[in-house]
Amino acid sequence: MQGESSGLSSPAESSRARQRRKRPAQIAISDDEDELSPPPRVNGHANGKKRRSDVTELQVDNSDLDDLISEAQGTPLREVASGDEAGDEELEEQLVDVEGELEEGDRGRVGFRPEYQRGADGYVAGSVTRIKLHNFMTYDHVEFRPGPHLNMILGPNGTGKSTIAAGIAIGLGFPPKVMGRAHDLKSYVKQGCIEAWTEIELKGRPGKANVIIWRRFNREDDKSEFRINGETGTKKAVSEIVRNFGVQANNLCSFLPQDKVAEFAKMSPDIALESEIAQRDQVQTQVDALAPDVAHFEARKEQEQEREYLILAIHVAKANAATQQWKATREDRESVKRQQTAMRRKRQPLVDLQDFYERKTRKVEAHTTMHEEEYKDVAKHWKNSTRRMDDTNRLCREIDDELTGLQRKAKRLEDEKQKRRTEIRQAEDILRQPVDDVSDELAKLQQRKKEIVQAQRTAVNELQDLERQRLDGGQRIQQLNRNIDVANRRHQQLSSAELQREAEARRFDPSMDWMLDWLEQNGSELESPVLKPPMISVSVKDTRYAWQVEAFTNLSQRSTFICQTQADYSKLLGFQNKQTTWKGRPLRVRLHLAMVEVNEQTCNPPRLCSPEDLADMGMDAWAIDHVEAEPGVIAFLNERAGLHRVAITQQTSPNINSKRLMDADIRSWATANEINRATRSLYGRKDWQFQTEPRREARAFNKTVDQEAIRQCNEEIKRIKLEKNEIEAPLEKISKQVDTIRRRAEERKREAAEVDEDLERLRENRKRFEKAKIDLERARRQLVQLENEPTSEERRKKLGQAKYKLLKEGMPHLESYWAASESTMDLSTRVVEDVLRMAQCRADNTAIGQQVETGHSDLEEIEQRLAELSLRVKEVAALATALTQRAKDLTVDAPSVVKRLLRERKDQQKSVEELKAELSQVEADLELSVGIDPGIIQRYQRLSIKLGELKARVEQQETALQRTVKQINKVLNNFEPALNTLVDVVSKKFSAAFERVGCAGEVRVARSEEGFDKWGIEILVSYRDGDNLAILTGSHQSGGVSVAPRSSQAVRHRRTLLMPPQERSLATVTYLMSLSEMARTPFSLVDEINQGLDQRAERNVHNQLVEVTCGSDAGQYFLITPKLLTGLSYHRKMRVLIVNNGTGLPDTQEKSNRWGDLKANLARYKAAHGIVAS
User: Fold this and answer.
1) Where are the strands (E) in 155-252, listed by range?
2) Calpha distance 131→1081 (Å, rounded)
3) Is the separation of the CB atoms in 87 and 78 below 8 Å?
4) What are phi and psi of 1058, to 5 degrees?
5) What is the predicted pLDDT for the residue at 263?
6) Alpha-carbon torsion 439, 443, 446, 448, what sign?
7) How many helices (H) does the chain have, and how many strands (E)?
8) Are 601 and 627 in contact (CB under 8 A)?
């Protein structure tokens, strides 16, 4: 067998492997699969499953683990073959004396096979424990866990069985070509999806954790992202892990996908190197002779193609130029229209305001004139009253001055007399008092003062203690007041549904939390308000429709900040992937942004039908009609989620006629229990395809006021207030005690003052007795002198009478003066206010008039400009339409080469003049060239292709021959014994398996004396009694296996057996089973290899496969098939996985559907038929 078709290598290949042993072995991954940055975090779980995909496990029994062999792990043969020079000695030691170790019934135990590293759960290190696929080929989302031994994957054709094989290979980093299908990675993304990802969990070595390999790729390119155990990784690291586990998805003997069966069977005899060299030289001579003519022909052909391209490019350039001119002119017209509308709206308030201020000015002027006349009259009266009052005051001041002099003199004399009389009386009183001894009374008063001071100190101490208690209680009350404020704010938040949605959004995404705070602090810097994401700003009027509206939006749409200008969008886009610190933790800002235009077309786009027709079809409304949000959010949901095209109803699905909805071009609708999407195929009969999903409760649009949380908040406020009341009651008592103590302290203070006064009085009594004698004599002498002086009473009486007369006559003038003064002040204030008000009205009226007058001229200019632009748009549109249609017609009729040149050079942006100049040059060159017979060119092309193939084969064979010759003598002694032993073991297993089905078979080495590169593996089989063994070939079967000798002589001297497809399938699967017992890969996979077998052969093959793969020393095995016979052998270590995948799968737990509970039905079926699988 050749290349990847076998787990064994030829001596030549082994020799080449030894030359490469110093280079590390790597798994080939396509060069175009570049690494990308780690994917953004999406809430920790997958969302938006569109179709149900179930994998039912019919057998989960790993109890038979006592038979597992726990021996020391050996070195895999493949590692020795690719190791350093010491590998030859290790290989020789492993292959020594292995004959006879394979006894009858002792399967898979030979000396050179290292033991598996098996865990306690039965899984071999490197085997697959879990597979998860998302948007991968036929699956929206699926996850299942295979068993450690044989896994039978069953299901109808087209359900995605082979997708599992592709998911394993692609998920472990192998290139797509190993599947034999599309070689582009993006071809494995499910139709209609943008990206896909896989997650494969491999069993770790004993004592080590499992390895989880995650890979994501998209439909745009062939780049991939890898994660290893949740950490960002590279394809090189993934390849190293897979290589260390010994996984060989690129080896057809251990991993045989459905589309690789034909490749496994391919066989072509080698051609002699000398013959190929002679043929190569002969073809080279013929090619060289034709080369000059071909070069000239190709040059002329390229010039002709260039001429056709330039002609078409000139038309396209003209159309593009006209189109750009039309777009620019149309944009100018729309801009002028918006200016006209804005100016008209802006001018109307100015006109109304101008009229208002004119009326106001006239009214203020009338009031001002009236108040000025009143002020003049009152001011004149005030001046007259003031003059008369001045005259009366002057005369009264003269009389007062004279009376004051007389009064001062008489009062001074009388005061002196009264003072002397008082001094005489006081002195006599003192002299009349008896003189006693006051020493005892002084001692009593001093003792009393000490007692008062001590009582004051006690009261101060008590007061300080009470003040501390009151201070502590006051602080506690302040804290409780703050708690009440916090609870009240929380109560306010709970009462607002939007605040609740914003709080939940902040907890959901730190980047969203950061952006919301930034907008609160810096929103004024933006041109227009940036709208909050729909998960915050959207509410559904009727909560019954909330889940339906939300079902037609995805998480990224609900998390998008909506900008209304391009400048704001560009500014926020600059924050993408920004590294910052948020709330004490590092944060990489990841935002969902969008820019929408808010107008009537985007906010209220036309519906697919009228409301009456929609109601007639059983639908309640369009989804967007139940959304309450800003116009920008409405426009975003219409544009991105298409909610204006989604119909919703509260009726159940059986009551809805889906055909009428599709006839009305309604592709998405929601009923009371499910959502539906309809798509129409673009090919063939253009059939409708339906996608139905069950109801999922809304998570964002159903937020309402949480009454329970409000009740708890009210309880918290009530509890805090009760605690506050309990603290305030003792504080009031303490305050009363403080007041009582302070009153007692004041009383003690007054008592101390009284005692001090008594002490001072007793001390002064001793001194004043002597002083009283002297004061009495002096006062009596001075009193006699004062009584002898004359008086002025008569003059004072006359002056008093004159002043009384003047004041009586001036009272009317005084009353008139005060009345005039008050009127003057009031009117002057009114006049000043009227003048200021009038000046302000005149200034406002003037400014508004100027703006109105300026707006008139501006509006006339805009209207004239709009008329000119409208005419220009029509002219340019007609020209652009004609040129574009002409360019389209020419493009449709253009050759494919010209179309390709047009696509490749679309970014050159050359003008029409430049293209015309190039066309003139090309046409001039064509006139000078000579035509060549096209037959010569065809002959040259055929010979060139043939020459390339011959050169490649010769070069490959020469290189292989050189490497082989260098190593042939070195490896001969080790290679042939090991190869014979290995082929003998496989042949014995193959022969034994064929004998059990009543046939004969043998595997042997096909040797050649010409060299190791002519060696190969031959499979000989015989299916009928009396027939000799014949070599197996796949000449008449694309899906069978064919193995033939590498030399052409062997083909001539051996009889070739051409067999029916079912017999070749039997040989193929038997050979693979024989190899699987020898292989040490963690897992093997065969896809639909049992197709074409008759029932007897299929039953025998199945029973042997169960026996081999469920043994204690067997690894993990996947068998994929669309059908199986009944009554086959079953082993407890088997696991049967049935794939159910499609658009109409019911819920397995829903009892209301016509099938009932599927799991319960399955259990009843197994019980009724005696099936023991669980």
Assistant:
1) 195-202, 211-218, 224-228, 231-233
2) 18
3) no
4) -100, 115
5) 60
6) negative
7) 27, 27
8) no
- % of residues, the chain, pLDDT over 90: 15
C-alpha–C-alpha distance, residues 397 and 403, integer Å: 10
Reduced to 3 states (helix: H, G, I; strand: E, B; else coil), residue 862 is helix
DSSP per residue, 485-523: HHHHHHHHHHT-HHHHHHHHHHHH-HHHHHHHHHHHHHG
For residue 225, the SS3 value is strand
Q: What is the tens place of the pLDDT at every residue in 1119-1137?
A: 888 877 887 888 888 998 8
Using an 8 Å Cβ cutoff, are 557 and 520 in contact? Answer: no
Structure tokens belonging to residue 8: 């064994």
Residue labelled with tokens 């051996």:
1054
Query: Which residues 6+ apart lie within 8 Å of 1104 measured at CB?
Result: 993, 996, 1070, 1073
Q: Each residue of 204-231: b (16+ CB within 10 Å) or e?
A: bbeeeeebbbbbbbbbeebebbbbeeee
E strands present in 365-446: none
Other beta carbons less than 10 A from residue 549's beta carbon = 27
**Nearest in space to 140 (alpha carbons), one of 1076, 1158, 1142:** 1142
pLDDT tens digit sequence for 117-151: 888 888 999 999 999 999 999 888 999 899 999 99
For the chain, the distance separating the N- and C-terminal CA atoms, rounded to the nearest angstrom, is: 42
1079 compared with 164, residue with greater pLDDT: 164
pLDDT of residue 1148: 58
Burial of 1070 by CB count in 10 Å (0-12 exposed, 13-18 middle, 19+ buried)? buried
Contacts of 99 (CB under 8 A, 6+ apart): 981, 984
Q: Say how far apart CA 163 and CA 311 lie, in whole Å.
A: 49
Residue 696 has a CB neighbour count (10 Å cut-off) of 14
**Model confidence at 1056, in pLDDT bands (50, 70, 90)?**
very low
Residue 379: φ, ψ to 5°: -65, -40
**Maximum Cα–Cα distance across the chain:** 187
Q: What is the pLDDT of residues 992-1020, one digit of tens each?
A: 877 777 788 888 888 776 666 677 788 88
Query: In degrees to the nearest 10, what's the CA dihedral of 801, 806, 808, 813?
Result: -170
**485-521: pLDDT as tens digits:** 888 777 666 556 677 788 888 888 999 999 999 998 8
Indicate the angle between helix axes 934-996 and 11-19, nearest 10 degrees: 110
Q: Which two tokens stand for residue 530?
A: 């940036």
Q: Please report which confidence band the pLDDT of residue 223 belongs to, taking 50, 70 and 90 as the band edges.
A: confident
Distance set, CA 265 to CA 6, 178, 803, 1075 (Å): 10, 15, 149, 16
Q: For residue 642, count other CB atoms closer than 10 A to its CB.
A: 16
In a 13 Å sphere around the CA of 981, the CA atoms on its Cβ side amount to 21
> Is the Cα dihedral 477, 479, 480, 482 positive or negative?
positive
The larger pLDDT score, comparing residue 868 to residue 259, is at: 868
Phi/psi at 196 (5° precision): -140, 160
Q: What is the pTM of this model?
A: 0.36
Q: How confident is the model at residue 1040 (pLDDT cuts 50, 70, 90)?
A: very low
How are beta strands 1083-1087 and 255-256 bridged, if at all? parallel
The CA distance from 1084 to 7, in Å, is: 12
At 411, the pLDDT band (50, 70, 90 cuts) reads: confident
In the predicted structure, residue 24 carries a pLDDT above the cut 70: no
728 vs 607: CA distance, rounded Å:
66
Q: Can you spell out the DSSP letters for 867-919?
A: HHHHHHHHHHHHHHHHHHHHHHHHHHHS-HHHHHHHHHTTTS---HHHHHHHH
Average pLDDT over residues 1065-1083: 74
- pLDDT at position 132 is 95
- Residue whose token pair is 């920008």: 632
Distances (CA, A) of 1158 to 51, 471, 1150: 18, 73, 8
Contact 176, 184 (CB under 8 A): yes
